[in-house]
């Protein structure tokens, strides 16, 4: 390998939760984070932070999403009097990696070339992908290992800071985040507790359905420096309204998806991608409850679903 | 048709929310239910109320569940230094109708025979299935129309009442529910507010993985009288740890899934099936926050996911 | 209904093979057609008459085609010495209706409105679709009921007649077919035996991969008159290098897919769509063996695969 | 590695057709094999040599087969007069590896451990699996590279030899095959031409639907010696009515699926598994035309379909 991988740095495993940990920053969730989150609730309004799923939504190249309705109806009629019928849906999809979704800790890896010239892929906590992979799901680090997230959330509205949606390839820096804190009156110190969730609004989400064909071509997002800054504050989740949290294309073409590697692999922090953050931004609230319970398909690499904010 | 369908009765539509409503008792959700629910929180402990999803779990006859991992890994390596790789999962399933899931209002219907001898299927709010059906999802009443549920929940522990899991075919009556209220100290009046959620523990859930092959053969559950009693209290959701909320087989073989028809079609109340309620019961808490955000696949007949309780 | 449906005419069922027949013109296949076909073989050259299947090929709106490889590899290593591994593929598709495929007799229907105002769909042999439909396949008239086809084939090269690919919407008439017979030296009488196969080259096939996105927008093809002419000669199969055999859009907008209805429903003749006929045309051979063994998925509405000619 | 792998032996690649060949013994197909096959035809009778595909058929552990019908119907009505409707089917399956199917040359491999301790999987012609694998199909050696097979076939009826179906684990030896030749009057020399197909009847096929749950538990089949004997005669395809052609469990537990490795990897001979051979055996014909045109899904590891014999 040429130079060290700046996204991982030295000694990036074992994790601070030990070599057998599968939950990463999910360990920071607990009754105390729940009780702390409660204090955020003012009006009781709930705002969904995800997009619905439909044929025609953006898909990363190679991925599939289809829904078919078996029969019309799927069952019945049963019961001479009730004449009961029912309907099913049938879905085929890279379910953990479409639309609004949270990545599992086993989703991203780093391939190393060994002295012998052969390669090995390492994922969170130094697990060898070859040890945890099966054709039918991950043996470890699947999204089923993630906890239910119910904790304080903070929105950093970078689109709001610039007053316009950011362009593809725009790198969000620590300084941009500090300017957001300033602008949003969150202060520079103690604005985030360990276990809290940080959501980054870039403006890319507003193009989700309207620019479905080009949505995955590129995006504004976090650069490695911003990810490093956030990691020091130990959030459980970093989310954004783009498709990778990372800025695309990568600032350094030799270091692709550095925020993925730095946040997931080194710090066990979950990424929530493809979020819908405009309604939340329009509410004017920077602090709220973030709630998300992953769909626990064993061995899946991520989870779709509907994260939501409570104001 | 022989006799009137007791599960629906007369004039079961339009709904109380008007002929165009697609949300049913979801309309009872709102800031006030959220704020009321907050008062339930004591310890901040979170308890998942659903099972994970895996090949080998119980499936209703004819349904499919598969997870395949495309490639190993699915993408990469990208970046000469980061050598970034990633993994996807691919799921094929009657996704809205497997394991722990909530039924959409369009899931269940009643087929009527017209004077001419032909049939028509009606669903919630008197919609003709033929008007809302497409091969690629429901035009109306899909689970994407449901709200985020965050509200007070009440557990009625019928298994606890009898001290043993109920047998397949055991009908839970209003009297059983009243005995649970008594035993759990919930009182007979005002124990449920409109918009609250009622969860019924039968003991069938404990057999979910251990008796996967026979799990759908039958189940203890609510009879029509119990559903009628609950409906008068206007819950948003009625859930249970069996596969249909209804007792199976039906008490009256001519009236199949009467609770489905009565609760969903007449009252727009959502059913949450295949729930995991043992941990909640063991907590000793009868009142709690129930939270569930459906996976919003447009036109789907239901949603899997992880409902959870906050204690 | 306004006027009689010219594609079906009066008394279009029962079929000539009786009211219970499910094989239609497949009944014309037998040892004698096989032996007759043998006489066509000269060089022994085999020419595939279908396209391969890949992501990116044309798909009718709403249909899906995906192939995913579970794992890498899917199984093994097994055996301390042999270290045997194996690979699987996983396909999701409207398998009977993509790319080059043969329609089952249950694929197409005609919806009638009854005096009471309700509708019923009739398919081959007057079967009510509601009697044979299930959410998991057709009870009758699935492609598994079709025979193995091995019989004399005749290519009518309409593109060759005009010296250029036909345009979308170009209707092929009986006169065009007779001109092909003349040009190809096949004579006007006795050029087709009952049970033979007729393949029509329009030129649309050459645009299959190169114009995948627009391939289903329209096509040259047979008009009803041409289908009626061919039907009198009792072929087992009529195939073409377009997507419906029929000309698209329909000549008479009130009569959509008339060749489908006339050939499949009235005469039980199988349609082979999306064929690759250029190599065959370039061989200069108008008569050959046509061989096709449908993929016998029970209850499927059609079959993909590789029909082939033996010269 | 402990000892050399007897299934592959030394210098098993490059193939006799050169290091870039992807067709293996398919190269032995050509006009001459077609013309030679013609001479086998006597009565013109066609016998399918495959089973239909249905939910409930045997599946190798981990594999899925489902068919769902989108809508009822899937499309239409279109045309005010024709009121045309149509039906699709939707299939999800390890399509190339279920029921009766032919393996692609890229299906089976041999994992080697390198001095450095790392592993590499080699497939036909010494290709590294890592070079040809993608998550969406094989770059090389997919079943789409196989030719149309139309050639002389020979049935060796080992079940007939013993007068009873063979038991699971029964190894068929060269001597058994010679006894079949004797019994069937095929002679010991020159009974097979290069490019011909050999089909082995074990009796396991008769249990395909009746013993679906246990069908993959084990099977009678060829041992390595029998495969070596057949390979010297250069068939294009070796087929059998069991699920692996190989005897299961393996005679030598350290050498699993040796016929797979020897025939496919060393000799490029295609395996046709799960065949239905009883009707052919009952016809009394040992020589016939074997015809099979693989379903050419690009990059697929095998093909389902309906091979057939012409008598």
Q: Which strands sit side by side, in order, in the main sheet of chain A?
A: 1-17-15-9-11-13-14-6-16
* Oligomeric state of shown chains: homotetramer
Low-pLDDT runs of 5+ residues of chain A are none
The helix/strand series of chain A, from N terminus to C terminus, equals HEEEEEEEEHEHEHEEHEHEHEEE
Shape of chain A: globular
Report on the biggest sheet of chain A.
9 strands, mixed
> In whole angstroms, how far apart are the ends of chain A?
48 Å
Count of beta strands of chain A: 17
At CATH's second level, what is the architecture of chain A? 3-Layer(bba) Sandwich
**In the residues of chain A, how many domains can be counted?**
1
Within the CATH hierarchy, at the fold level, what is the topology of chain A?
Answer: Glucose Oxidase, domain 1
Structural class of chain A: alpha/beta
Q: Report mean pLDDT of chain A, rounded to a whole number.
A: 96
CATH class of chain A: Alpha Beta
CATH H-level homologous superfamily name of chain A:
Putative cyclase
Pfam families (chains A, B, C, D): Cyclase
Protein name (chains A, B, C, D): Kynurenine formamidase
Organism (chains A, B, C, D): Kaistia soli DSM 19436
GO molecular function, one term (chains A, B, C, D): arylformamidase activity
What do these coordinates show?
4 copies of one chain form a homotetramer. By secondary structure, the first copy, chain A, is an alpha/beta fold. In chain A, 16% of the residues lie in helices and 22% in strands. In chain A, strand 3 and strand 4 form a beta hairpin. In chain A, helix 5 (224-231) runs parallel beside helix 6. The longest helix of chain A is centred in the middle third of the chain and has 10 residues, at 174-183. Chain A is globular. At the A-B interface, helix 1, strand 3, strand 4, strand 5 and strand 7 of A face helix 1, strand 3, strand 4, strand 5 and strand 7 of B. Strand 5 of chain C pairs antiparallel with strand 5 of chain D, so a sheet runs across the interface. Chains A, B, C, D: Pfam families: Cyclase (PF04199). Chains A, B, C, D: GO terms for molecular function: arylformamidase activity. Chains A, B, C, D: InterPro entries: KFase/CYL, KFase_sf.
């Amino acid at each position: 390998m040429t130079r060290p991988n700046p996204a991982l740095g030295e000694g990036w495993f074992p994790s601070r939760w030990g070599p057998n940990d599968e939950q990463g920053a999910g360990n920071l969730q607990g009754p105390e984070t729940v009780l702390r989150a409660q204090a955020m609730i003012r009006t009781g309004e709930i705002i969904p932070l995800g997009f619905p799923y439909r044929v025609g939504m953006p898909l990363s190249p190679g991925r599939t999403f289809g829904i078919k309705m078996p029969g019309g109806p799927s069952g019945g009629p049963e019961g001479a009097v009730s004449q009961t019928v029912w309907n099913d849906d049938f879905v085929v999809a890279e379910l953990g990696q479409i639309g609004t979704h949270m990545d599992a800790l086993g989703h991203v890896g780093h391939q190393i070339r060994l002295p012998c010239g052969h390669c090995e892929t390492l994922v969170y906590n130094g697990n060898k992908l070859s040890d945890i992979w099966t054709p039918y799901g991950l043996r470890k680090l699947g999204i089923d290992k993630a906890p239910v997230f119910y904790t304080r959330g903070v929105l950093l509205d970078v689109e709001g800071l610039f007053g316009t949606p950011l362009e593809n390839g725009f790198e969000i820096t620590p300084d941009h985040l500090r300017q957001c804190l300033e602008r949003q009156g969150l202060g520079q110190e103690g604005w985030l507790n360990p276990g809290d969730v940080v959501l980054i609004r870039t403006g890319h989400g507003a193009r989700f359905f309207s620019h479905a064909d080009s949505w995955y071509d590129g995006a504004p997002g976090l650069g490695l420096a911003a990810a490093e800054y956030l990691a020091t504050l130990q959030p459980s989740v970093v989310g954004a309204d783009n498709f990778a949290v990372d800025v695309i294309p990568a600032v350094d073409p030799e270091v692709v998806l550095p925020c993925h590697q730095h946040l997931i692999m080194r710090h066990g922090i979950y990424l929530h991608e493809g979020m819908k953050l405009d309604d939340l931004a329009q509410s004017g609230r920077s602090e709220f409850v973030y709630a998300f319970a992953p769909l626990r398909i064993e061995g899946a690499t991520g989870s779709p679903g509907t994260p939501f904010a409570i104001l």
